[in-house]
Amino acid sequence: MFIITHRHIGHRVACVCLAIFLSCAASNVRAANMTRAQMQTILDESIEALLTGQPFGPGLETKQLALRKSFEAGAVTKDQLIGMVETSMMPMLDAYHERISVDSLKTLPARVEPLLSPYMSWEEVKAAGWRIASPHINKSIKDLLTGQPFSPDLVKKQLVVRKMFEAGLITKPECIAMVEAAMLPILNEHRTSRYILKEMPDRVEALLSPYMSWEEVTEAAWRMGSSLIKDGDQMVLSIGTLAPPGTPWMNMPEKVLLPRIAKLSNKKVVIKVYGGGVMGEDTDILRKMDIGQLSGCGCTALGILAASPETAVFLLPGFFRNYDEVDFIMEKFRKRIDRSFEERGYILGALIDTGFFYMFFKNPVAGLADLKKQKLLTWFGEVETTFYKELGIDATPVAVPETIAALSTGLANANLAPAAWMLGMQAYQYADYYFTPPLLYSPGAIVVSVATKEKLRKQFGVSETLAYNVQEMLIYEVSRLEPEWKKEVRDYEARSLKAFQVKCGMKPVPLSVEDQKTIAEAASRVYEKLADKAYPRSLMADMQKALEAYRAGL
């Protein structure tokens, strides 16, 4: 019979304690001796489970315990640990983009703390995620600004970034900061254009909405672009126009464009508009632009024809029947029209309306036969004078600023003009009758000198690419007002005609079918006489073909 003594018990307890001690010591030795590669593998497995929302499992938790002991033993510094976490996250955001869910991302703060704290905080893990997401945002912004399509690989990364937004891992201020940080290097090295910017709102909304809007991206681009202009300095752009104050041609820039550019640029880009012809008529303004005294012109038909003779095709009598046709042709041929201005040193900032031109009279008229008895003036050039000659009418040429004086003194008692201009210039008081329908259409335009970018480059020492991009951003801001600007002009035109009849007693005189036929025949002769002289025949033919298809509903 074996008798257990206190001595035996003490011996066995000592053996058990020794075994436990040796086991723990061995574990500590293994933890302390864990290689960087082994630690990286455990981090990879852990972060994969975190990102995909999977539980760690007993086996992985045991490895994590050893990993934490390595951290305790000082096996890696904090900076090294941050680098290892980024190394784990980077390929997984790509490889597991479909498995990463918003819900799994939302659980990250609670799950990361027990794994890495106090060696790496959740804020530091989140910052690592931003650093990984930032290049993808940079590449996305670059592709947007340069008009490039997103690659399939980038689209995968964008999907994860959007999930990070949705999970609240990237806040709106953080997103704006990331976009701002991307902007300046891109604008400094890569060209954008007004055409690319026009397509960007939809692309930006698809990429960043509702976390960042197109307007906020625009503001970020302007903040970065204008940041190179020192505080207290300003780039001043001066624009001259014949448009009188109080008309939609002046109201839109004064009430919308000028305040917007001042706000976007933090008042570092300032636009000054000189209206009412104080800078002369259109041709005077264009000459001042050519020598650098002015930066732009709000053009009537006279200035448009001087800046781009090809646009004479827009003024051909009877070419357009309504504004829908005008808008269709303007949109379809816009780049071609833009090029015609740029070939002569101008940029077409906005293509709007002067309006449909009506023939106004002081004396009673019944039709075309009476027109020959009137003292008619002409002011906008070859198309108008050729048209009158084809109708057998002599007209007196005058400069635009002199038209009111000519009408008020009796030098003329008839003129061809848009109703909005007649109201704005108060020329309606010299007319009691007008023909319907209108005889022709004329566009209006905001034209900017191509030297604007050179002014920016030389004055503030910015790169040629950045100067070009700021110029294009400015042109885009002007052009984006076109729809609203046109609506204002057209509404003003309709109100003008109504006011002429209701308040002034002016009488519309409908042209007979025979008179309209005579006008159409004269217009056809004008088309032929001026083709390849005032404008390319091919441009007129292409526009006519497009209009025929449009009218046929094709």
From TrEMBL:
PROSITE patterns recorded: PROKAR_LIPOPROTEIN (PS51257)
CDD domains in alphabetical order: PBP2_TRAP_Tp0957_like
Record has Kinase as a keyword: no
One biological process term in Gene Ontology: transmembrane transport
Family matches, as InterPro entries: DctP_fam, TRAP_DctP_sf
Keywords: Signal, Transport
Signal peptide, first to last residue: 1-31
NCBIfam families linked: TRAP_S1
Family: Belongs to the bacterial solute-binding protein 7 family.
Protein name: TRAP dicarboxylate transporter-DctP subunit
Natural source organism: Desulfosudis oleivorans (strain DSM 6200 / JCM 39069 / Hxd3) (Desulfococcus oleovorans)
Biological classification of the source: Bacteria, Pseudomonadati, Thermodesulfobacteriota, Desulfobacteria, Desulfobacterales
